[in-house]
Amino acid sequence: MKRALVAGAVLALACASAALATKPGSGSSTGQARVFVPNPVQDLGNQDLTDQKDADYAALQAAYRAVRLTNLDGSGYLRGDWAEIVGETGNPAYSPTNTFLFNRSQDEFEQVMAYYWITEAQKYIQSLGFGSTLRPVNMEPQRLRINQWGIDNSFATTHKDEIRLGKGGVDDAEDGEVILHEYGHAIHFAQDFAFSSVEAGAISEGFGDYWAVTVGQHVRALLGLPASSDPACVADWDAVSYDPTAPHCLRRVDTELTVEPDYPGGLVGQVHADGRIWSRALWEVRAAIGSVRADTAILEGQFGFDGGTMPALAESIVEAADDLYGAGVAGQVEAAFAARGIL
Ligand SMILES: [Ca+2]
Ligand SMILES: [Ca+2]
Ligand SMILES: [Ca+2]
Ligand SMILES: [Ca+2]
Ligand SMILES: [Zn+2]
Question: Does 248 map to a domain?
Fold first, then answer.
């Protein structure tokens, strides 16, 4: 969940219509799309952008990036190897030529965003070796429900293993970092991460924020775009609806918070607040050893976490770094956790 709201009633199921089966498929696994990378505020460095009730206006146009969709199943719908839209408001996006060129005022745009970002995240995971030399991490189609939740929040749930992206304020799936944050939780589900304590919940929130940033920057680089000017600000576009002060951020991954003076004395017992300590530690690991090694060691270290403490998982990530890259790198990882008071 991206924010500390209490969830209301769970939505009733909305099944795909029977008409789906009758349309001709594209027969191709690739397609064209327009998306935000990862969101307009970060991409354009413009803190003055606002929701304007889902309007598509001039100042946003430069944020639409032409990208290639991959791993589609050839049905003409946004279903594929690593992501599938299983519920939506409005029409399910469909193209017999896999051409998905929508603007943000069209409901299909959020579906395209979700398909693209989840698929790119899984491709990145596999590029690190997970699913080949390392164990797979959520290597299956991620079920996604888009714009069916009216409040300004999103969540991942083990019920049917789904991510549900809300439409309050800026539609949540217009921000690639909100999508990636929720995928962070889905990664934890897939890794048998136990959510058995507030601290484990905080770790998952912190990881989700870190994951949003690191994958967002990875995809920018893949597309030949420069690094964001303020990458540590998470969900800069979604946050224009609720964070009035520029830079608008859901949270940041570079706060000075620690668990000091006496672990766990610095923890406040709220998962999103405490998660910022964890995300900052991961952010420092990334700065110290680079994104590819950091993300590999972090994912590898998270398998089977028993839901215990921050120090316990930090130790596991240090061990993973040691196994993968040796004692020198492991020492740098340890130092990053030590700087937060975690180790
Ligand atoms: Ca929209
Ligand atoms: Ca899964
Ligand atoms: Ca909205
Ligand atoms: Ca929102
Ligand atoms: Zn969350």
Answer: yes
Ligand with an atom nearest the CA of residue 240: 4
CA distance 65 to 299: 29
Reference 176, options 1, 36, 3, 33; nearest CA is 36
Determine the distance separating the centroid of ligand 5 and the alpha carbon of 173, expressed in angstroms.
14
N- to C-terminal Cα separation, the chain = 27
CA 183 – ligand 2 centroid, Å:
9
Q: Which ligand is nearest to the CA of 191?
A: 2
Domain span at residue 162?
Answer: 85-92+108-134+143-339
Q: Could you tell me the CATH number of the domain that includes residue 213?
A: 1.10.390
**Taking the alpha carbons of 159, 160, 165, 167 in that order, is the dihedral positive or negative?**
negative
CA of 167 to the centre of ligand 3 (A): 4
Q: Which two tokens stand for residue 304?
A: 């089977």
> What spacing in Å lies between the alpha carbon of 237 and ligand 4's midpoint?
8
Residue 151 lies in a domain: yes
State in Å: Cα 197 to ligand 2 middle.
21
154 CA distance to ligand 3 middle (Å)? 12
Strands (E), the chain: 31-35, 65-69, 83-88, 99-100, 142-149, 154-157, 162-166, 233-234, 251-252
Number of structural domains, the chain?
1
pLDDT per position in the chain (343 positions), as tens?
888 744 333 333 333 344 445 688 999 999 999 999 999 999 999 999 999 999 999 999 999 999 999 999 999 999 999 999 999 999 999 999 999 999 999 999 999 999 999 999 999 999 999 999 999 999 999 999 999 989 999 999 999 999 999 999 999 999 999 999 999 999 999 999 999 999 999 999 999 999 999 999 999 999 999 999 999 999 999 999 999 999 999 999 999 999 998 889 999 999 999 999 999 999 999 999 999 999 999 999 999 999 999 999 999 999 999 999 999 999 999 999 999 999 9
User: How far apart are the C-alpha atoms of 93 and 280, rounded to whole Å?
Assistant: 37
Distance 17 CA to ligand 5 centre (A): 30
